[in-house]
Model the fold of this input.
Amino acid sequence: MIFLKTEDEIELMRAANRLVAQTLAEVGKALRPGVTTAQLDKLAEEFIRDHGAEPTFKGFPNPYGGPFPGSICTSVNEVVVHGVPSEDVVLREGDIISVDCGTLLNGYNGDSCYTFQVGEVSEEVRQLLRTTKEALYCGIATAVAGHRVGDIGYAVQSHCESAGYGVVREFVGHGIGKEMHEDPQVPNFGRRGQGKQLKNGLCIAIEPMITMGTYEVYMMSDRWTIKTRDGKPAAHFEHTIAIHHGKADILSSFEEIEMLEASRNQTL
Ligand code: MG
Ligand code: MG
Done:
């Protein structure tokens, strides 16, 4: 069932998503070679709790195994999504890491993800990040009242495939509100004019997961970590948006992250 949000609910969603944006920026500030993903997780959990919210991912149930142990997903290089924070994962110069974060604040969810560069990253990988981020905004640009979910997927898919990249099929965007995952599903592939119609009050997370090579992925034995089949890198960018006054209103934000990237000469 799709739950359309009231004006008041959209503002609550905005607050939860603003906290996600701040948390991602805090994680970004701590990124450097030698840092472990467990350190990033601890920092994120403390920041979220200090701001009166819950990290939604912590303890998130898994149909295949135990609950998610971390407060953020930290997916390095060939890990596409759901990377589990660990003392054993030490970031190195030239890595990329997607940090996916969810908060529950005053009963509503925020959800956003950004793929960061660690130090200096190859131009080939930067191009993957650039294209994935552009694809997110292509999807958002089509998310207007009257359009359909398939229009978003088509926009994301055509932007990435025309650049020669793979579009992951097994994981998709989603409705969001009181629950982190609500209807409808929002795939990163699709056909124009197909699927559920977008209406004012609909809140969705759009989240392209894009690969340098094959779009095929597999699950590691921890029952969480998803990697590319060919071991090539993947990127993941996500915003939560509301269809508001007929247009996409982006509730999460990359503004602070982009300022950080500019200060590090990492602008995509
Ligand atoms: Mg997410
Ligand atoms: Mg999501």
Remarks:
- Residues 111, 174, 205, 207, 238 surround magnesium ion (ligand 2) (CB under 6 Å).
